[in-house]
Design goal:
The structure holds two protein chains of two kinds. Helices cover 38% and strands 25% of the residues of chain A. Chain A has nine helices and ten strands. In chain A, helix 3 packs across helix 4, helix 3 packs parallel to helix 5 and helix 4 packs across helix 5. Chain B is mainly α. In chain B, helix 1 packs antiparallel against helix 9 and helix 9 runs antiparallel to helix 10. Chain B starts with a helix and ends with a helix. The chains are: A alpha/beta, B mainly alpha. At the A-B interface, helix 2, strand 6 and helix 3 of A face helix 6, helix 7 and helix 10 of B.
Chain lengths: 247, 217
């Protein structure tokens, strides 16, 4: 058993009268990659934002490295710095170059010196194979390149885990591959990752576990070969049939 | 008869027109940014103070503010014994309220996604604002700021009522001296356009150019 990086217990989230998350228990260990799949509106993105400490839960607890995040007066900004987040929508800082985007966090949050931050940012850009594009602005990059810069931006903080919220959902198929390839590299290098995606090839190749979410709950989970081939719940079976069948 | 001499005399009003406009713009900028920030974050419930300031400035004609400062308050605030400073502060105070609205709109246009991305890196709200939101908001605000400068240049003509020797006052002096009723004001009108157009147009174009470069909407 490895060290648990991020976990939650009885996690619930309500917007107005609508319960989007209805009680989730979850944990992920250091070095693991877990993939969340499920129909839209099932609460995947909300779950991820809560785990990224970008929104507080309505009920339940979140634990980062064993510590109750909202219960023990911890500095949330410090914790967020250790939890990388890659968004579905393009969210690079538009007034900064790729390099500027990646080094801002190390500089402002980790208080690194400019040359130190730049060195680290260039390494992160190299990891996502974009060092030659360091001085381009987001508007000059393709959607896939932008997402890779987003990944580098998260990496440069040297986080303990990175959360990915459908990073390829808004991309064309060829651009999807270049992002997925980078993510596979990271998984194989032992980066702890929690990924919402419908790229089942990615899940099959690198996921330790797939979680199927529906209606605000994780209703089924298991290793990829098991869950993808023999889903136990009718909902998961139906969802996978449609996803693979394309209808 | 309106002569070249009259024209050159009239030109002497331009420096004061420029000085009032740009000083009041600077004052408005210095007031507008903090007001926008206070409205955004409302620290210690100060948002209501910002709201009140904006409402008051929107509700009073700037000429009345000038008269109030120069004739009504010079006894309390010695600064306002100067007609020039009364006019500049009146315009600057109003501009602060207007510019805060321009910045507010620009900050909202930058969008919540940028704030969320900055937050996810562990930045505090203030750091996110300082390093991510504000630099982009400046670019979005440029065309609005151009219009605001144009407005200030034109409204600096109210200072004429306080006796400040600016462009409108000079054209009035020439009108009285030459008994030419058309040309002094016509020349003044053209000079206002010549001052206003390049400044507002430059900020407009700079704004569009930077927005395209950075992919801002």
């Amino acid at each position: 058993m490895g060290e648990v990086v991020l976990a939650c217990e009885g996690l619930k989230k309500r917007y107005g009268d609508l319960w989007v998350l209805k009680g989730i228990d979850f944990e992920i260990e250091k070095g693991q990659t877990k993939v969340i799949i499920g129909p839209s509106g099932s609460g995947k993105s909300t779950f991820l934002r809560l785990m990224g400490l970008l929104e507080p839960p309505t009920e339940g607890k979140i634990y980062f490295e064993g510590k109750d995040v909202y219960g023990s007066g911890l500095d949330l900004n410090m914790l967020r710095a250790k939890i990388g987040f890659v968004f579905q929508e393009p969210s690079l800082f538009r007034h900064l170059t790729a390099l500027g985007n990646v080094k801002l966090g190390p500089k402002v949050v980790l208080k690194m010196k400019d040359d130190e931050a730049e060195k680290r940012a260039m390494e992160a850009l190299k990891t996502v194979r974009l060092e030659e594009w360091a001085h381009h602005y987001p508007a000059q990059l393709s959607g896939g390149q932008q997402q890779r810069v987003g990944i580098a931006r998260a990496l440069a903080m040297d986080p303990d885990i990175i959360l990915f919220d459908e990073p390829t959902a808004s991309l064309d198929i060829e651009l999807t591959w270049e992002v997925i390839d980078v993510m596979k590299d990271l998984a194989k290098r032992g980066v702890t990752m929690l990924v919402v995606t419908h790229e089942l090839g990615f899940a099959k190749e690198v996921a330790d576990e797939i979680l199927f979410m529906d209606d605000g709950r994780i209703i089924e989970s298991g290793p990829p070969e098991e869950l993808l081939k023999n889903p136990k719940t009718p909902r998961a079976r139906e969802f996978l049939r449609r996803l693979i069948g394309g209808v | 008869m309106f002569t070249l001499e009259n024209f050159l005399f009239l030109l002497q009003g331009v420096p004061n027109t420029l000085a009032i406009s740009f000083l009041s713009f600077a004052l408005g900028f210095a007031l507008g940014i903090p007001t926008a920030i206070v409205k955004q974050f409302s620290p210690y419930g100060l948002g209501h103070v910002a709201d009140a300031y904006i409402s008051v400035m929107r509700g009073i004609p700037v000429l009345v503010i000038m008269l109030l400062f120069h004739f009504g308050m010079a006894g309390i605030i010695p600064l306002f014994k100067s007609a020039f400073l009364s006019a500049t502060f009146a315009l600057g105070l109003r501009s602060g309220a207007f510019q805060s609205q321009i910045f507010r709109g620009a900050i909202n246009a930058v969008g919540r996604q940028q704030m969320m991305a900055a937050t996810s890196l562990g930045m505090s709200r203030w750091q996110a604002f300082r390093y991510v939101i504000l630099p982009q908001a400046f670019i979005v605000a440029l065309p609005g700021l151009g219009s605001e400068i144009a407005l200030l240049i034109k409204d600096s003509s109210y200072a004429f009522v306080l006796g400040v020797l600016e462009l409108t006052k000079y054209s009035d002096i020439v009108r009285k001296a030459t008994r030419s009723f058309l040309y002094p004001y016509l020349i003044a009108a053209i000079l206002y356009i010549l001052i206003t157009f390049p400044v507002a147009n430059y900020l407009d174009r700079l704004g569009s150019r930077l927005k395209t470069k950075y992919g801002l909407r």
